[in-house]
From TrEMBL:
Taxonomic lineage from the root: Bacteria, Pseudomonadati, Pseudomonadota, Betaproteobacteria, Burkholderiales
UniProt entry keywords in alphabetical sequence: NADP, Oxidoreductase
EC id: 1.6.5.5
Pfam families: ADH_N, ADH_zinc_N
Domain of life: Bacteria
Enzyme class: oxidoreductase
Keyword flag Signal: no
Molecular-function GO term, any one: quinone reductase (NADPH) activity
The name this protein goes by in its record: NADPH2:quinone reductase
PANTHER family documented for this protein: QUINONE OXIDOREDUCTASE PIG3-RELATED (PTHR48106), QUINONE OXIDOREDUCTASE-RELATED (PTHR48106:SF13)
Length: 324
């Protein structure tokens, strides 16, 4: 029988257990995928900790992976055994050697995208694509603020926005991460632990503020991000690494006619067509060297707890993948 990482209760990384599981036969619209590499991201941490109560327990974490189709259901027409595929899905279960999944969640992998790159970048890359091409379409000359600029999504946002001609300001926690953000295309980098990022952003932009702020930090930066916006600027709050944002009066957006979104990336990818269009845009950006996957660290599936510990440390810049 195959193995998976099973979570019986929320908690720290030690709740992730390597156990035997059964894999059912695929239904008519489903395929069996043998995983070659599995993505690890902060969504998994939120679910494991109990911040997101979206996994029925006991259950298997993980929403993205890359691998090979082993078998298909009777009505599957888009895929066949042997196809290399990647997926991101609302249906948990990626922390496993193999799984059954609906064909609507899959995309074919181009030959020039490896399993490791696909698993490391797929969710992060689709998030960047949605933020930069759909939530707010970045334009040449825009000032763009990216919090956690040396994080997985942050690095992609910086590279992509710079390619589009934007002027990118990044916030980071350490000088080492500042180097990574600068290499990814930031024009200016702010060490938020040492500097007032609001004052620095307004100084860098000559008091104008930014056209868009991409904020995955949440509680600690949200209201500061609002203050950094230019007139008619947009704040995209797409994460809460520091905790949930406190309620606030929507009238605070009125003085500068600002706008706010809390994008759920999965809603932007809610149909096979939308998913595959976004994936094609992402793979094109990779092929054109507009964005790069960067350093990837592989960890054995059985050591998923170690991967979560490293992810939560915020000290690494490499993407993490689990290898069955």
């Amino acid at each position: 029988m195959p193995f998976a990482i099973v979570m019986h209760a929320p908690g720290g990384p030690d709740v992730l257990k390597f156990e035997e599981v059964s894999v059912p036969l695929p239904q008519s619209h489903e395929v069996v995928v043998c995983h070659a590499a599995i993505g690890v991201n902060f969504h998994d941490v939120y679910v494991r900790s109990g911040a997101y109560k979206t996994l029925e327990l006991p259950g298997v974490l993980g929403i993205e992976a890359a691998g090979v189709v082993e078998a298909v259901g009777a009505d599957v027409t888009d895929f066949r055994p042997g196809d290399r595929v990647a997926y991101v899905t609302k249906s948990y279960g990626a922390y496993a050697e193999k799984r059954v999944i609906g064909q609507e969640s899959l995309v074919l992998l181009p030959p020039n995208v490896s399993d490791e790159v696909a698993a490391a970048i797929f969710m992060k890359g689709l998030t960047a694509q949605v933020l930069i091409e759909q939530v707010y379409r970045v334009k040449k000359g825009d000032w763009v603020l990216v919090h956690a600029a040396a994080g997985g999504v942050g690095l992609l946002l910086c590279q992509w926005a710079r390619h589009l001609g934007a002027r990118v300001i990044g916030t980071v926690g350490t000088p080492r991460k500042a180097e990574a953000a600068l290499a990814a295309g930031c024009e200016s980098v702010i060490l938020y632990r040492e500097e007032d990022f609001i004052a620095r952003v307004l100084d860098i932009t000559a008091g104008e503020g930014v056209q868009v702020a991409y904020d995955s930090v949440g509680k600690d930066t949200f209201f500061g991000s609002l203050k950094c916006l230019a007139p008619c600027g947009h704040l995209a709050n797409f994460g809460q690494a520091s905790g949930a944002v406190e309620p606030f009066e929507v009238s605070q957006l009125f003085p500068k006619s600002n706008s706010l979104s809390r994008p759920n990336v999965m809603e932007y990818l809610r149909t096979p067509t939308k998913l595959r269009e976004a994936a094609a845009s992402l793979f094109d950006a990779l092929s054109a060297n507009i964005i790069q996957a960067g350093e990837i660290q592989s960890i054995s599936l059985r050591d998923a707890a170690q991967a979560h510990t490293e992810l939560e440390s915020r000290e690494r810049t490499a993407s993490l993948v689990l290898k069955p």
